[in-house]
TrEMBL record:
InterPro entries: AAA+_ATPase (IPR003593), ABC_transporter-like_ATP-bd (IPR003439), ABC_transporter-like_CS (IPR017871), ABC_transpr_LolD-like (IPR015854), MacB-like_ATP-bd (IPR017911), P-loop_NTPase (IPR027417). Belongs to the ABC transporter superfamily. It comes from Deinococcus aetherius. GO terms for molecular function: ATP binding. This is ABC transporter ATP-binding protein.
Length: 228
């Protein structure tokens, strides 16, 4: 299936997403697009549905209604396995609580997406680890890392398979300000270099100001505003 709109294919596109839990609807029709190389910040009050939205956009959950497209392919209609396969190659995820695999080394954590897509990602993984300041830490287990170091591993992992789309849910939420700026800067720089489209949920206004565009989620609907 090809993307229906004329012009450049967005990295990420969602049309009229509706979703909820039990009898409660949380998202009442969210439409958004993120261009290749574009960074879009999503802000909104606690409970407004930001994480719910990111889960739908990352294909970790299926919307009750609406469409999700990654790099020109509709994916909400795919089966779970097919979608997981597409996700491994096209989507990088960074969450507030960096879910590193504790029994795997730093290097192997970063290599997981490449392994899933059958790429030989070792050189890329080492380069990314060096870029996030963790050269020499490849063999360490996550348990010995600081919070900021763990989050930098999560950033490297998210970018390992050169994804078209990077989804980040409060990627710096558990870090102090200095570390938060370093991690966020790395995420945005690396994603921009690769031409990935980034959607970033954040409560940090300084981080939101570094985006190209800001979307505000209020009462399950998107309001668009200028970043910065
Ligand atoms: N798995 C779930 N089961 C039931 N309700 C849920 C579930 N996930 C989220 N919700 C509800 O959906 C609403 C939106 O939650 P969500 O986590 O998306 O908010 P958020 O904007 O990310 O908030 P925060 O800024 O606090 O992270 C909340 O009322 C929440 O209780
Ligand atoms: Mg949330």
């Amino acid at each position: 299936m090809t993307f229906p709109a004329p012009g450049a294919v967005p990295a990420l596109f969602a049309r009229d997403l509706r979703h909820g839990f039990g009898g409660v609807e949380v998202l009442h029709g969210v439409t958004l697009g993120v261009g290749a190389g574009e960074v879009v910040a999503v802000t909104g009050p606690s409970g407004s549905g930001k994480s719910t939205l990111l889960h739908l956009l990352g294909g970790l959950d299926t919307p009750r209604d609406g469409e999700v497209w990654w790099a020109g392919e509709r994916v909400d209609t795919l089966g779970t396995q097919a979608r997981a396969g597409r996700r491994a190659g096209r989507v990088g995820l960074v969450f507030q609580h960096h879910y590193l695999l504790e029994d795997l080394s730093v290097l192997h954590n970063v290599l997981v997406p490449a392994l899933l897509t059958g790429q030989d990602g070792a050189a890329r993984a080492r380069t990314l680890l060096a870029r996030v300041g963790l050269a020499g830490r490849e063999r360490d287990l996550p348990g010995v890392l600081s919070g900021g170091e763990r989050q930098r591993v999560a950033v490297a992992r998210a970018l390992a398979s050169r994804p078209a789309v990077v989804l980040a849910d409060e990627p710096t939420g558990s870090l102090d300000r200095a570390n938060a700026e370093v991690v966020a800067g790395l995420l945005l720089d690396l994603a921009r270099e690769d031409g990935a489209g980034v959607l970033l949920v954040t409560h940090d206004e300084r981080l939101a100001a570094r985006a190209d565009r800001a979307l505000h989620l209020l009462d399950g609907r998107i309001e668009e505003g200028e970043a910065g």
